[in-house]
TrEMBL record:
Signal peptide: none annotated. It comes from the Eukaryota. Keywords: Cytoplasm, Disulfide bond, Phosphoprotein. Residues 25-92 form the Ig-like domain. This is OBSCN protein.
Amino acid sequence: EDAGDYICDSGDAQTMASLAVKVAPVTFVKALHNLELQEGSAAHLSCEVSKPDVPVEWKKGTTVIHSSQKCSIKQEGNVHTLVIHDLNRADS
């Protein structure tokens, strides 16, 4: 939002410059790790991104996961957590 043209005007003369802001890419500070858990337990998957308030999307394969009774999705600052409750074979 700071990008744009800036002008310095003295009344008799002016000068102008354009400002372009390069946005740093989002990276993973903490990646996901594989889990092996017992049926009936809960899986806690957590990752951390390099910038706050970055939206993330959780997926199982190509299917997008949404919050439900089965899955809880949380964000605290840069940390995003998916909890899968009452694990069963289909959750693998």
